[in-house]
Sequence to fold (246 residues):
Amino acid sequence: MDHSLRDYRRKFSPSGMNSFSVAVKETDLWVAVGEQAIDSGLAQELEQFIWRQRRLLEDYIEKDPFFRETPDPYLTGADAPDIARQMARAGNIAGVGPMAAVAGAFAQYAGMWLLKTFSQVIVENGGDIFFSCPKPLKVGIYAGCSPFSGKLAVRVEPKPGCRGLCTSSGTVGPSWSRGRADAAVILAQNALLADAVATATGNLVQSSEDLQRAVEFARKLPGVEGVLVVLGDKIAAWGEIQLEEV
Fold:
Protein backbone atom coordinates (compact mmCIF):
# COMPACT_ATOMS: atom_id res chain seq x y z
CA MET A 1 0.00 0.00 0.00
CA ASP A 2 1.29 3.47 -0.88
CA HIS A 3 0.70 5.36 2.32
CA SER A 4 1.58 8.66 0.63
CA LEU A 5 -1.76 8.35 -1.16
CA ARG A 6 -3.58 7.86 2.17
CA ASP A 7 -5.52 4.92 0.72
CA TYR A 8 -6.32 3.65 4.20
CA ARG A 9 -8.63 6.60 4.81
CA ARG A 10 -11.32 5.04 2.65
CA LYS A 11 -11.61 2.23 5.21
CA PHE A 12 -11.54 4.52 8.23
CA SER A 13 -14.58 6.79 7.86
CA PRO A 14 -17.03 6.01 10.70
CA SER A 15 -20.69 5.61 9.87
CA GLY A 16 -22.84 8.63 10.62
CA MET A 17 -19.96 11.11 10.52
CA ASN A 18 -19.11 13.60 7.78
CA SER A 19 -15.53 13.70 6.54
CA PHE A 20 -13.26 16.00 4.55
CA SER A 21 -9.53 16.64 4.08
CA VAL A 22 -7.28 19.67 4.56
CA ALA A 23 -3.63 19.88 3.48
CA VAL A 24 -1.15 22.62 4.45
CA LYS A 25 2.43 21.83 3.41
CA GLU A 26 3.42 18.60 5.23
CA THR A 27 0.27 18.69 7.38
CA ASP A 28 -2.27 16.42 5.66
CA LEU A 29 -5.42 16.12 7.75
CA TRP A 30 -8.40 13.83 7.35
CA VAL A 31 -11.29 15.02 9.49
CA ALA A 32 -14.57 13.40 10.56
CA VAL A 33 -17.16 15.33 12.57
CA GLY A 34 -20.57 14.62 14.09
CA GLU A 35 -23.86 14.11 12.40
CA GLN A 36 -24.78 17.76 11.92
CA ALA A 37 -24.26 19.22 8.45
CA ILE A 38 -20.86 20.68 7.59
CA ASP A 39 -20.79 24.34 6.63
CA SER A 40 -19.35 24.87 3.16
CA GLY A 41 -16.61 27.10 4.55
CA LEU A 42 -15.46 24.78 7.35
CA ALA A 43 -12.55 23.23 5.45
CA GLN A 44 -11.25 26.65 4.45
CA GLU A 45 -11.55 27.96 8.01
CA LEU A 46 -9.65 24.96 9.35
CA GLU A 47 -7.01 25.40 6.66
CA GLN A 48 -6.49 29.02 7.72
CA PHE A 49 -6.23 27.96 11.36
CA ILE A 50 -3.55 25.39 10.49
CA TRP A 51 -1.68 27.97 8.42
CA ARG A 52 -1.60 30.30 11.43
CA GLN A 53 -0.32 27.57 13.75
CA ARG A 54 2.32 26.50 11.23
CA ARG A 55 3.49 30.09 10.79
CA LEU A 56 3.85 30.51 14.56
CA LEU A 57 5.88 27.30 14.76
CA GLU A 58 7.99 28.04 11.69
CA ASP A 59 8.79 31.57 12.90
CA TYR A 60 9.92 30.18 16.25
CA ILE A 61 12.07 27.48 14.63
CA GLU A 62 13.74 30.12 12.48
CA LYS A 63 14.86 31.88 15.69
CA ASP A 64 15.65 28.63 17.52
CA PRO A 65 16.70 26.01 14.92
CA PHE A 66 17.93 23.58 17.59
CA PHE A 67 14.27 23.05 18.52
CA ARG A 68 13.85 21.25 15.19
CA GLU A 69 17.19 19.47 15.16
CA THR A 70 17.54 17.97 18.62
CA PRO A 71 16.45 14.35 19.20
CA ASP A 72 16.62 14.94 22.96
CA PRO A 73 14.42 16.72 25.54
CA TYR A 74 14.51 20.48 25.14
CA LEU A 75 13.41 23.62 26.96
CA THR A 76 11.77 26.30 24.81
CA GLY A 77 12.44 30.00 25.10
CA ALA A 78 10.08 32.41 26.84
CA ASP A 79 8.87 33.65 23.44
CA ALA A 80 7.83 30.20 22.20
CA PRO A 81 4.24 29.90 20.95
CA ASP A 82 1.89 27.53 22.73
CA ILE A 83 2.22 24.79 20.10
CA ALA A 84 6.01 24.74 20.49
CA ARG A 85 5.76 24.64 24.29
CA GLN A 86 3.28 21.76 24.17
CA MET A 87 5.46 19.83 21.72
CA ALA A 88 8.48 20.28 23.98
CA ARG A 89 6.48 19.22 27.03
CA ALA A 90 5.35 16.00 25.32
CA GLY A 91 8.89 15.30 24.14
CA ASN A 92 10.30 15.89 27.61
CA ILE A 93 7.88 13.39 29.16
CA ALA A 94 8.86 10.79 26.55
CA GLY A 95 12.57 11.62 26.57
CA VAL A 96 12.76 12.72 22.93
CA GLY A 97 12.99 15.97 20.98
CA PRO A 98 9.98 18.24 20.46
CA MET A 99 9.63 17.48 16.75
CA ALA A 100 8.69 13.91 17.68
CA ALA A 101 5.29 15.40 18.57
CA VAL A 102 4.75 17.60 15.51
CA ALA A 103 2.22 15.43 13.63
CA GLY A 104 0.28 14.75 16.81
CA ALA A 105 0.38 18.46 17.62
CA PHE A 106 -1.41 19.49 14.44
CA ALA A 107 -3.95 16.69 14.85
CA GLN A 108 -4.55 17.83 18.44
CA TYR A 109 -4.82 21.53 17.63
CA ALA A 110 -7.16 20.92 14.71
CA GLY A 111 -9.27 18.60 16.85
CA MET A 112 -9.59 21.05 19.73
CA TRP A 113 -10.51 23.82 17.29
CA LEU A 114 -13.24 21.63 15.78
CA LEU A 115 -14.60 20.69 19.22
CA LYS A 116 -15.69 24.31 19.64
CA THR A 117 -18.39 23.52 17.05
CA PHE A 118 -18.84 19.73 17.01
CA SER A 119 -19.36 17.26 19.84
CA GLN A 120 -17.77 14.38 17.89
CA VAL A 121 -14.40 14.84 16.18
CA ILE A 122 -11.71 12.61 14.68
CA VAL A 123 -8.59 14.10 13.09
CA GLU A 124 -5.95 11.93 11.43
CA ASN A 125 -2.59 13.33 10.35
CA GLY A 126 -0.43 10.75 8.60
CA GLY A 127 -1.42 7.94 10.95
CA ASP A 128 -1.50 10.07 14.11
CA ILE A 129 -5.03 10.49 15.43
CA PHE A 130 -6.89 12.86 17.73
CA PHE A 131 -10.37 11.70 18.67
CA SER A 132 -13.29 12.64 20.86
CA CYS A 133 -16.42 10.62 20.08
CA PRO A 134 -18.88 8.26 21.82
CA LYS A 135 -18.23 5.40 19.39
CA PRO A 136 -15.49 2.75 19.43
CA LEU A 137 -12.50 3.67 17.28
CA LYS A 138 -11.09 0.91 15.07
CA VAL A 139 -7.80 1.56 13.29
CA GLY A 140 -5.93 -0.86 11.04
CA ILE A 141 -2.30 -1.70 11.79
CA TYR A 142 0.11 -1.12 8.90
CA ALA A 143 3.43 -2.58 9.97
CA GLY A 144 5.71 -3.00 6.99
CA CYS A 145 6.56 -6.60 6.17
CA SER A 146 5.10 -7.94 9.40
CA PRO A 147 2.55 -10.71 8.76
CA PHE A 148 0.14 -8.71 10.95
CA SER A 149 0.24 -5.71 8.62
CA GLY A 150 -3.20 -4.97 7.22
CA LYS A 151 -4.70 -7.99 9.01
CA LEU A 152 -5.12 -6.66 12.53
CA ALA A 153 -6.78 -3.54 13.87
CA VAL A 154 -6.65 -1.69 17.16
CA ARG A 155 -10.04 -1.11 18.77
CA VAL A 156 -10.40 1.58 21.45
CA GLU A 157 -13.59 1.82 23.48
CA PRO A 158 -15.07 5.28 24.01
CA LYS A 159 -14.66 7.27 27.21
CA PRO A 160 -15.26 10.93 28.11
CA GLY A 161 -12.82 13.54 26.85
CA CYS A 162 -10.33 13.54 24.00
CA ARG A 163 -7.38 11.23 23.40
CA GLY A 164 -4.65 10.47 20.90
CA LEU A 165 -3.68 7.27 19.10
CA CYS A 166 -0.35 7.59 17.31
CA THR A 167 2.08 5.28 15.52
CA SER A 168 5.82 5.36 14.90
CA SER A 169 7.66 2.94 12.63
CA GLY A 170 11.22 2.21 11.69
CA THR A 171 10.11 0.48 8.47
CA VAL A 172 6.96 2.29 7.24
CA GLY A 173 6.25 5.88 6.26
CA PRO A 174 8.13 9.11 6.99
CA SER A 175 8.54 8.63 10.76
CA TRP A 176 12.12 9.05 11.99
CA SER A 177 13.14 6.28 14.37
CA ARG A 178 16.30 4.97 15.95
CA GLY A 179 14.66 1.56 16.26
CA ARG A 180 13.46 -1.24 14.01
CA ALA A 181 9.88 -1.67 15.21
CA ASP A 182 7.41 -2.22 12.39
CA ALA A 183 4.87 -0.32 14.50
CA ALA A 184 4.83 1.28 17.93
CA VAL A 185 1.28 2.37 18.71
CA ILE A 186 0.45 4.53 21.73
CA LEU A 187 -2.93 5.49 23.19
CA ALA A 188 -2.63 8.53 25.44
CA GLN A 189 -4.54 11.43 26.94
CA ASN A 190 -3.62 13.67 24.02
CA ALA A 191 -2.18 13.28 20.54
CA LEU A 192 1.06 15.16 21.24
CA LEU A 193 1.97 12.80 24.05
CA ALA A 194 0.91 9.74 22.04
CA ASP A 195 3.11 10.86 19.13
CA ALA A 196 6.19 11.56 21.25
CA VAL A 197 5.87 8.33 23.26
CA ALA A 198 5.36 6.30 20.07
CA THR A 199 8.71 7.61 18.82
CA ALA A 200 10.46 6.92 22.12
CA THR A 201 8.97 3.43 22.35
CA GLY A 202 9.93 2.52 18.79
CA ASN A 203 13.46 3.78 19.43
CA LEU A 204 13.95 1.02 22.01
CA VAL A 205 13.23 -1.87 19.65
CA GLN A 206 16.13 -3.50 17.80
CA SER A 207 15.03 -7.12 18.16
CA SER A 208 12.05 -9.11 19.42
CA GLU A 209 13.78 -9.35 22.80
CA ASP A 210 13.18 -5.60 23.22
CA LEU A 211 9.39 -5.67 22.81
CA GLN A 212 8.44 -6.19 26.43
CA ARG A 213 11.03 -3.66 27.62
CA ALA A 214 9.56 -1.09 25.23
CA VAL A 215 6.04 -1.75 26.51
CA GLU A 216 7.18 -1.44 30.13
CA PHE A 217 8.87 1.86 29.33
CA ALA A 218 5.74 3.36 27.77
CA ARG A 219 3.22 2.11 30.33
CA LYS A 220 5.07 3.89 33.16
CA LEU A 221 4.78 7.33 31.57
CA PRO A 222 2.00 9.60 32.89
CA GLY A 223 -0.91 9.94 30.49
CA VAL A 224 -0.26 6.73 28.54
CA GLU A 225 -3.31 4.45 28.43
CA GLY A 226 -2.30 1.72 25.98
CA VAL A 227 0.74 0.34 24.13
CA LEU A 228 1.21 -1.98 21.16
CA VAL A 229 4.59 -2.84 19.63
CA VAL A 230 5.06 -4.99 16.51
CA LEU A 231 8.28 -6.44 15.12
CA GLY A 232 7.98 -9.10 12.46
CA ASP A 233 5.76 -11.91 13.74
CA LYS A 234 5.96 -10.78 17.38
CA ILE A 235 3.59 -8.47 19.29
CA ALA A 236 3.61 -7.05 22.80
CA ALA A 237 0.73 -4.99 24.21
CA TRP A 238 -0.69 -3.44 27.37
CA GLY A 239 -3.61 -1.30 28.48
CA GLU A 240 -6.81 -0.09 26.81
CA ILE A 241 -6.04 -1.56 23.39
CA GLN A 242 -7.99 -4.46 21.93
CA LEU A 243 -6.78 -6.35 18.86
CA GLU A 244 -9.27 -7.46 16.20
CA GLU A 245 -9.03 -9.00 12.77
CA VAL A 246 -9.66 -6.57 9.93
